């Protein structure tokens, strides 16, 4: 009996320890589970009320302005008269009258080709002409005295005409061997030397290009044809004078459209500008400075007659140079525009971020309204410089984010910082290594 009692007491003690151990484990694991649940709750609560720091952006205002559309293109200068001078007769070069790069007047001698044979033939034919002239006069005198027949006189007249044509033909052949400038212009680099044999129409002697006036040729898409007309003004810039604007007038439109590119060739005419005048155009009497209507840039206007009267030989534009062209179109009614750099272009449409006050009326630490951005999709029209026409999606006066768009999404809190101008640029020379 005593042994049974001892065993029961032992079991009771062991059961009590098991309960204590179980209770302890429940407390430990319950604490861990409770801590994790509390941590998740606090994290959820934190992110539910968390708002990232506002993004600093620059903004612009959508404004309504008059729009002056332009057709942009790139073209090249062509001489109003330009040729590669060739010989019309074969022979050896015996004299050269010009030097490379020389300015030359129309009719001035360029090259002489050996004409010894033709000079000898000319003397022979001139002697025949004198003989036939005497014979013809003698026949006329005999005819008046009824001594010669009419047929004899006619034959003498034919011989005289033949002798005269032989002289004229030989003189023309000699003239072919004395090459002169067909028009006033500037010569290129000499391609022949004394003693060189040249073939008629095959051996280039020198390039001759008229310098003033010039043609400016360029292409525009075929759908722009109706917007162009002869006499239409245009402006252009060249790389040699990037800060100056020049003017020209459309001179001709091609009669067909290129079937491969579907572009139309357009030609404009302009007066070349003296090099010296463009060094300080505002104080030069050779050019005129005009204000561009409704624009801030000024136009440099040159004049062919003034250049001719002042015997200008050094010009700013050369045939073959490129020019950036802006063909002016009639102005249209006012349109809403924003800078092109403020527009995000995407596969599903173009969009911008507009800045609005927080819909809940929240205030920041300074008591000012909290600002947020909203993405809106827009339809764009023509572009000009850094401005784009907005056909729909924006209203006049909307504040649009112009920088920092990559960090934005709808609802992002922002602060506006317009301290840096939109056209600010970095001076690369002042940057560190």
Account of the 3D structure:
The chain is an alpha+beta fold. It is elongated. Mean pLDDT is 83; it is low at 423-433. The protein contains 5 helices and 25 strands.
Determine Rg (CA atoms, Å).
Answer: 46 Å
The N- and C-terminal alpha carbons lie at a distance of 100 Å
Low-pLDDT ranges? 423-433
* Strand fraction: 35-45%
How many helical elements? Answer: 5
Mean pLDDT: 83
The computed structural class is alpha+beta
Order of helices and strands: HEEEEEEEHHEEEEEEEEHEEHEEEEEEEE
Largest sheet: 9 strands, mixed
Number of strands: 25
* Shape by Cα distribution: elongated
Fraction of residues in H or I helices: 25-40%
Brief overview, please?
This protein has 433 residues and is an alpha+beta fold.
Task: Outline the fold blueprint.
Blueprint: H1 2-49, E1 55-61, E2 63-67, E3 70-79, E4 82-86, E5 91-96, E6 103-104, E7 109-113, H2 116-144, H3 150-176, E8 178-180, E9 185-187, E10 197-198, E11 204-209, E12 214-221, E13 233-238, E14 241-257, E15 263-270, H4 275-279, E16 288-291, E17 298-301, H5 304-309, E18 322-328, E19 332-339, E20 344-346, E21 349-357, E22 371-384, E23 387-392, E24 399-403, E25 413-416
Parallel strand pairs: 1-25, 14-17
Antiparallel strand pairs: 1-24, 2-19, 3-12, 3-18, 4-11, 5-7, 5-10, 6-9, 7-8, 9-11, 12-15, 13-14, 13-18, 14-15, 16-17, 19-23, 20-21, 21-22, 22-23, 22-25
């Amino acid at each position: 009996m005593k042994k049974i009692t001892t065993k029961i007491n032992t079991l009771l003690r062991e059961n009590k320890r098991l309960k204590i151990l179980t209770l302890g484990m429940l407390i430990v694991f319950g604490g861990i589970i409770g801590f994790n649940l509390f941590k998740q709750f606090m994290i959820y609560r934190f992110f539910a009320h968390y708002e990232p720091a506002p993004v600093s952006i620059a903004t612009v205002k959508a404004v309504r302005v008059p729009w002056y559309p332009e057709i942009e293109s790139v073209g090249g200068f062509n001489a109003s008269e330009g040729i590669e001078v060739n010989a019309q007769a074969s022979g050896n070069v015996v004299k050269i009258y010009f030097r490379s790069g020389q300015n030359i007047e129309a009719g001035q001698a360029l090259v002489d080709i050996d004409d010894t044979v033709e000079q000898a033939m000319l003397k022979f034919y001139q002697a025949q002409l004198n003989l036939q002239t005497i014979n013809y006069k003698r026949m006329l005198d005999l005819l008046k005295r009824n001594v010669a027949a009419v047929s004899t006189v006619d034959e003498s007249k034919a011989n005289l005409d033949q002798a005269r044509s032989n002289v004229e033909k030989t003189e023309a052949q000699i003239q072919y061997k004395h090459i002169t400038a067909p028009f006033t212009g500037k010569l290129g680099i000499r391609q022949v030397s004394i003693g060189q044999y040249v073939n008629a129409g095959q051996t280039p002697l020198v390039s001759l290009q008229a310098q003033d006036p010039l043609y400016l040729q360029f292409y525009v898409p075929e759908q722009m044809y109706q917007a162009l007309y002869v006499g239409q003004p245009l402006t252009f810039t060249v790389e040699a004078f990037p800060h100056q604007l020049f003017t020209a007038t459309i001179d001709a439109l091609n009669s067909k459209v290129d079937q491969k590119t579907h572009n139309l060739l357009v030609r404009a005419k302009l007066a070349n500008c003296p090099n010296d005048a463009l060094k300080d155009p505002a104080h030069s009497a050779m050019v005129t400075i005009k204000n561009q209507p409704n624009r801030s840039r000024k136009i440099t206007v040159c004049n062919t007659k003034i250049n001719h009267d002042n015997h200008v030989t050094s010009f700013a534009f050369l045939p073959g140079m490129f020019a950036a062209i802006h063909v002016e179109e009639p102005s249209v009614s006012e349109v809403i525009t924003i800078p092109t750099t403020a527009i995000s272009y995407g596969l599903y449409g173009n969009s911008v971020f507009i800045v609005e006050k927080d819909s809940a009326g929240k205030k920041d630490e300074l008591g000012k309204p909290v600002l947020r951005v909203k993405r809106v999709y827009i339809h764009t029209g023509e572009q000009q410089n850094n401005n784009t026409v907005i056909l729909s999606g924006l209203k006049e006066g909307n504040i649009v984010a112009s920088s920092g768009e990559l960090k934005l999404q709808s609802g992002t809190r922002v602060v506006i910082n317009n301290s840096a101008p939109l056209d600010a640029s970095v001076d690369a020379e002042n940057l560190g290594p």
